């Protein structure tokens, strides 16, 4: 039996949960594959990815700081990847071309709606941050037809630029200071502030009654933004572990044509962080 080879490239990548998630998916679905985490700094990306596919690799995930480089590398791109200018999934096609896709935004929407019963349609949504992750989630969120979407960023010009790139929808960009007096049903933290145990400087009263906070970052302990949500009496204050599992499931589907069941995998990862 041939074992097909997959990997995640990132820098740093040591603590990635992706190898574990894909091993569980493979066991669950009876797929013969290997999946490893490889530390690849940006300056070695092109060489490493070329070698990986030359040596018979079938697919890659790319994480920080490689998603834009992966976008440049892909021969063909999905609409999601084109929209976000970032790729987290590379897949070898039958014709030898490398497909680039971005499963982050679909993963977030699947986690919110599937695991947490959060409705995006008609909701007032605030996205904090205007980096790669924010760009990746915007398209799939807009497809859910929210009532309004505001992007707020430490550097307001970047939020305004991002809003312009998705113009046509009711979408605006601003700085954190401009949010005073506004109300949102869902606040998504797509800044990297939680990685430094920090939260963006937000005014009190931003969250509607029973509103939801979601941090794309995840950790074994509640992140700084999950704690902020709790202080603001959020109906739910969630972190991004479910998004990680869901984006992995879509990548697995792109590679193998088989949809894994995410629920038991998420339950296992959640149980592990409680001990
Ligand atoms: P980028 O470096 O591309 O962007 C970082 C963003 O955070 C910028 O908007 C930056 O603002 C802002 N920022 C950084 N520090 C602060 C701070 N102290 N206060 C306020 N704003 C700050 O990162 P990514 O977009 O790639 O990643 C963002 C987060 O999303 C990370 O925590 C990452 O782990 C997470 N993520 C989670 C995924 C999942 O599956 N759960 C998938 C993808 C990402 P400025 O423009 O002013 O510099």
Please characterize this protein's 3D structure:
The chain has 275 residues and is α/β, with parallel strands linked by helices. The protein folds into 2 domains: 4-102 and 243-273, Leucine Dehydrogenase, chain A, domain 1 (Rossmann fold, 3-Layer(aba) Sandwich), CATH 3.40.50; 105-239, Rossmann fold (3-Layer(aba) Sandwich). It has helices at 18-29, 45-54, 67-73, 79-84, 104-116, 132-142, 156-165, 224-231, 241-256, 262-274, and strands at residues 4-10, 33-39, 59-62, 76-77, 89-92, 98-101, 124-128, 148-152, 171-174, 184-189, 207-215, 236-238. Strands 2-1-3-5-6-4 form a 6-stranded mixed sheet, sandwiched between helices. Strands 9-8-7-10-11-12 form a 6-stranded parallel sheet. Helix 8 (224-231) links the parallel strand 11 (207-215) and strand 12. Helix 1 (18-29) crosses helix 9 and helix 5 (104-116) crosses helix 6 (132-142). NADPH dihydro-nicotinamide-adenine-dinucleotide phosphate is lined by residues 64, 104, 129-134, 153-155, 158, 190-195, 198, 200, 216-218, 240, 243-244, 247.
């Amino acid at each position: 039996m041939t074992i097909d080879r997959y990997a995640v490239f990132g820098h740093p990548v040591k603590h990635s949960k992706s190898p574990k998630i894909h091993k569980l998916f493979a066991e669950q679905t009876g797929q013969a594959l290997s999946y490893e985490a490889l530390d690849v700094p940006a300056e070695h990306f092109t060489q490493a990815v070329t070698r990986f596919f030359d040596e018979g690799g079938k697919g890659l995930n790319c994480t920080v700081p490689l998603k834009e480089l992966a976008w440049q590398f892909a021969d063909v791109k999905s609409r999601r990847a084109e929209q976000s200018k970032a790729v987290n999934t590379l897949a070898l096609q039958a014709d030898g071309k490398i497909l680039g896709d971005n499963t982050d935004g679909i993963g977030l929407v699947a986690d919110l709606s599937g695991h947490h019963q959060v409705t995006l349609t008609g909701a007032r949504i605030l996205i904090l941050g205007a980096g790669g992750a924010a760009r990746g989630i915007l398209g799939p969120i807009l497809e859910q037809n929210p009532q309004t979407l505001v992007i707020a960023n430490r550097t307001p010009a970047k939020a305004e630029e991002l809003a312009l790139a998705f113009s046509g929808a009711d979408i605006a960009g601003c700085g954190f200071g401009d949010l005073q007096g506004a109300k949102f049903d869902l606040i998504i933290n797509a800044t990297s502030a939680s990685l430094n145990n920090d939260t963006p400087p937000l005014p009190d009263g931003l969250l509607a009654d029973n509103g939801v906070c979601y941090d794309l970052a995840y950790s074994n302990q509640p992140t700084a933004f999950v704690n902020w949500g709790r202080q603001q009496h959020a109906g739910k204050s969630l972190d991004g572990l479910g998004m990680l599992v869901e984006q992995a499931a879509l990548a697995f589907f792109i590679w193998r044509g088989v949809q894994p069941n995410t629920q038991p995998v998420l339950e296992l990862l959640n149980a592990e962080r409680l001990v």
